[in-house]
Amino acid sequence: MSKIRLLESPGHGPATRFDRLADLPPQFGATAAQPGDLILPSPVNAHDHGYGIRTLDFGAADDALEVWIPGLRLRPRTDPYLEALVAFGRLARTGVGATMHCHNSLNVDRLVDEASAVMRAAGDIGIRLGLSCPLLDHDAWAYDGGPQRLKPFLSAGDWQALEQTIPIYAPISTQLAAVEAVAAANASPMIDVQYGPIGPQWCSNALLEAIAEASERHDRRIHMHLLESPRQRLWLNRRFPEGVVNYLDRIGFLSPRLAVAHGVQLRPDELELLAERGVQLVSNPTANLRLRSGVAPIASAVERDGPAFAIGLDGTGLDDDQDLWREMRLLYLLHGGRSLTRQLTTKNIFDAAIRVGGHVINARSAEDYTIIDYQGLTADSLFDDIDEAEVLLTRMSARYARGLIVAGREVMREGDLTGIDFDAALSELLAQARADRPRLEKQRPLANALSQATRTYYATWPGIS
Questions:
Q1: How does pLDDT run across 272-318, given as a tens digit for each residue?
Q2: Domain 38-368+412-459: what homologous superfamily?
Q3: What is the arrangement of strands in the sheet containing 369-372, beginning at the earlier edge strand?
Q4: Rounded Cα distance, 58 and 54, in Å
Q5: What letter would DSSP give residue 188?
Q6: Which residue of 106, 244, 288, 401 has the fewest CB atoms within a 10 Å radius of its CB?
Q7: In sequence order, what are the beta bridge partners of 328?
Q8: Secondary structure of 279-339 as H, E, C letters
Q9: Strand positions, DSSP E, 103-253
Q10: Are 79 and 94 in contact (CB under 8 A)?
C-alpha cells in the first residue's frame, strides 16, 4: 500500500513514510493527505507585484525592461482588493502559501486604503504576506534626467500628453509616514509591512538615507529592486563613482533587514559585501530572461557562501502561470554548471524557497505545508527510493498540488480555495478591466510611442545595443 511521505527538510535527506494520516505528527491532523501523497513545507514567492490582470493581458508584451515599463501605463483601473484577491488566489491554488507583494500604487494619498484592501485579500485567501510599500522621488521614464531626456524622441503631441502625466512626488516625510500608517493599520500576525524603495535609480540620496535611518529606528524590513538591467548598472556607476552597493553600505542601508530583488548585474565584490551584511538576494530567473536583463550570479553567490538567496516570480513565471515550482526548476537548471559535480543542489534550491523566503517576509518560524500528489508524479517509476527532492525539481508543477495548510488553516484542497470562489472573483475582475478598455484604447498610442522613444534614447548610450 502507498504510504504518506513527510519531507520536512527537502534536499537534506529522504522523506519519512507513514502508513496512516493518524501516524503523522499532531500538526498534520487537519490535512487532507491521502496514501501516495507527499507533505513538505510550503515554498515562499519572495518577490512579486500581485498582478491579478497579468501584464500580457493588457498589452505589455515582453521587451527590454526599460522599454517594457511604459506598457504598465495600460494597466486597467480595477478594485485593488479584487486585483490582489485573484493574484494571491492563483498562488494559493498552486500550493504556495506566502508571498512578498511589492505594491504598485504611486499615489501616497491612496496607499493606506489600497494597502488595507491588499491585506484584507491576503486574509480572505489565508496566505502569509510581506507588503512592500512603494517609495520613490525620481521619475521612472529615464534614469539620466527623467522624462525631459525623452522629449527629442517624441512628437510634440505625444510630449504634451506625457508632460501632463508626470507625477509630483510627496515629501519624504509624508511617504515614510504613510508606510507607518499602513503598519499601524495592520492587525494580522500573518502580514509584515516593509519599506519598498522601488530601486536606487528611482530614489534620491536623501530618500535612501531616510529609509535606512527609519528601518533601523523601527526595526522594519526593506525590500528593493537592485541592479536588474545593464542600463541600471551603467547609470548607477555614473551616479555613484564609489559603487552603489558601497554607497548603500556607507549610509547604513545594508543589514539583515534588507532583501534585494534581481541583482543580475552584481559584481563579485558586491556579492561579498551583501553577504557580510546579512542581506538576502531574491532571484527572479524567468522575469530576468523575459525582460532581457540576463542571469543573476546565483552560482557565484553559493560558491562564495553568500548572500543567502530566495526565489520569486516577479508576476511572470515561465508560462505566465505563476508556477513557483517551475521557477525553482529553472533556477536549478540555469545554475547547475558544466562540471561533474552539480554547482547548485536540491538543498540550495529548497533552502532558498522555504527558509530564506520565510526570512524575506519576516516569517522564519512559519509552519505551512503543501500536499502533493506524489503518486501521480512517480506513476511510471520503477523504483520507490528516488530522492524526493530530485523528483520535485524534475517534474513538479502546480497541477500536482493537492492541498495547502497555512498556520493550521486549510487554504486549498484539490485546487479549490476554501475561503473564496476564485472563478467568480476572476470573472468580476475581468469585467472591471474590460469596462476600462475604451480609456486604454486611447492610451495605447502614447504608451507605444513612449516605449519606442525609450528604446531610441537608451540606444544613444555608449555600450548599449
A1: 999 999 999 999 999 999 999 999 999 999 998 889 999 999 998 89
A2: Metal-dependent hydrolases (3.20.20.140)
A3: 16-18, 4-6, 38-41, 369-372, 401-406, 409-413, 416-417
A4: 7
A5: -
A6: 106
A7: none
A8: CEEEECHHHHHHCCCCCCCHHHHHHCCCCCEEECCCCCCCCCCCCHHHHHHHHHHHCCCCC
A9: 128-135, 191-197, 222-226
A10: no
